Amino acid sequence: MVGTTYERFADVTCSATTIRRRRDEWLTARVFLVLEQICLQAYDKIVGLDLEYVVVEGGITKEPYGGEATGKSPVDRGKWGTKRSLLTDANGIPI
Predict the structure, then answer these.
(1) 50: number of CA atoms within 13 Å, CB side?
(2) Is pTM beyond 0.70 here?
(3) Which H or E run contains 76?
(4) Domain of life, per the record (predicted)?
């Protein structure tokens, strides 16, 4: 659901508030991290991760309104933001 509003998925059976609350509970319980590891292990077992070459990409996401996950960046003239990094195998599979 990253990059979209929860209202798009909400309906009479589940409100946007409930979706956000469950998301927060799952983040606290590390459900998504465990699911990510299960998916990586399954992919590696079925297809195989190609770790001969790995690529790391990083960037700073600007956060003009701040928030708990943001802070002044020492490498970007003190602007507010969050640094995001991604590591992929040779086929572009996120690790």
Answers:
(1) 7
(2) no
(3) none
(4) Bacteria
Biggest CA–CA distance in the chain, Å, is 49
What CA–CA distance (Å, rounded) separates 3 from 16?
Answer: 15
* pLDDT one-digit tens code per residue, 33-66: 999 999 989 999 999 989 888 999 887 776 656 5
Token output for 16? 């946007």
73, amino acid identity: S
42's tokens: 């399954």
**Do you know the residue count of the chain?**
95
| CB atoms inside a 10 Å sphere around CB 78 | 9
